[in-house]
Specification:
This protein has 311 residues and is α/β, with parallel strands linked by helices. 39% of the residues lie in helices and 23% in strands.
């Protein structure tokens, strides 16, 4: 009978696309993971994986073996997860990935209470705006906004966050307060650039119901929304950001929210919208108990956060 840890290493390496990914999942070194697979191959008397310095691929024997053992391992993991829920003690590593600003302001403050409720869970928080491959990076739950969702993932909505245009009192004193969408084009605007694909998060200008991209006066571009908000606080221009970031600055009098008058037919409009966040997980068929518990917790707690309500 092959060693269970060696079998798990083999399956996780193929699921994640690398031996390093399997090592991260199992909490061991890549060298130990490689030794586990080599041990499995010796016990079976056949090569399962062909490796190069940059890639790995299944042999014909490896393909057949993986097809038989992967479902068995999945059932074992499911049984262990369900049993831990029956005993009321969820346990094991739970890796959460989230876009930086939402993770910093909204997810991190909620985690101590979750950890206290489940002391045997080992939390790992990964806050980044780059693309996360949940399989290769072995992420249990990925929190993303709508435009970053991928087809085929199981998702559950967590929050719909209002977005707010605002500027510092000093900026408005010096440059005046824009009254309409057309007025915005004459002001210094601060644009957020997405790390995942390098595109700007375009402001939602429309004319007669059609999206357009008018020429804007861009004062600065940044890949960190918190940095752009601080830029606005210092009088550098107008920023468009989620209420979970903006609200504190408004309460403290450091930023002033802007309310634009609707234009007449044929005129430029600013069509504001919410920033919708979702919990994403890998397997549509089976969601581990610890993942279900975390997502239920976030669904319960996030709508209660005053930072998500505007005004």
């Amino acid at each position: 009978m092959p060693n269970l840890r060696a079998l798990e290493t083999f399956v996780k390496a193929l699921e994640g696309g690398s031996i390093a990914s399997a090592a991260r999942h199992l909490g061991i070194t890549p060298a130990a993971a490689s030794q586990n697979i080599a041990r499995l191959e010796r016990e079976l008397g056949t090569r399962l994986i062909t490796r190069t310095t940059r890639s790995m691929a299944l042999t014909e024997a490896g393909e057949r073996y993986l097809a038989r053992v992967a479902p068995v391992l999945a059932e074992l993991e499911k049984a262990q997860s369900d049993l831990s829920l029956i005993h009321g003690e969820l346990q094991g590593r739970l890796r959460i990935a989230c876009m930086t600003a939402f993770g910093r302001h909204m997810i991190a403050p909620l985690m101590p209470a979750f950890a206290e409720r489940h002391p045997r869970i080992e939390l790992e928080l990964q806050f980044t705006d780059r693309h996360i491959d949940v399989l290769k990076e072995d992420v249990d739950v990925s929190v993303r906004y709508r435009n970053a969702l991928e087809p085929g993932m199981s998702v559950r909505q967590l929050a719909a966050v209002p977005r707010v245009l605002c500027a510092s009192p000093e900026y408005l004193r010096r440059h005046g307060t824009p009254q309409t969408a057309q007025d915005l084009l004459a002001h210094s605007c601060l644009l957020y650039r997405l790390d995942r694909d390098g595109r700007f998060m375009r402001w939602p200008f429309v004319r007669d119901g059609k999206k357009i991209e008018p020429q804007m006066r861009v004062a600065a571009v940044g890949n960190d929304i918190d940095g752009l908000v601080e830029y606005a606080v210092a009088g550098g221009g107008i920023v468009w950001g989620g209420s979970f970031i903006i609200q504190r600055y408004v309460r403290e009098g450091l930023l002033v929210p802007l309310t634009l008058k609707p234009g007449r037919k044929g005129q430029l409009q600013f069509q504001n919208s919410t920033l919708d966040f979702f919990a994403c997980f890998r397997d549509r068929q089976y969601v581990p108990a610890k993942v279900r518990e975390l997502v239920n917790y976030l669904v319960e707690e996030l709508p209660l956060r005053k930072e998500l309500v505007w005004p």
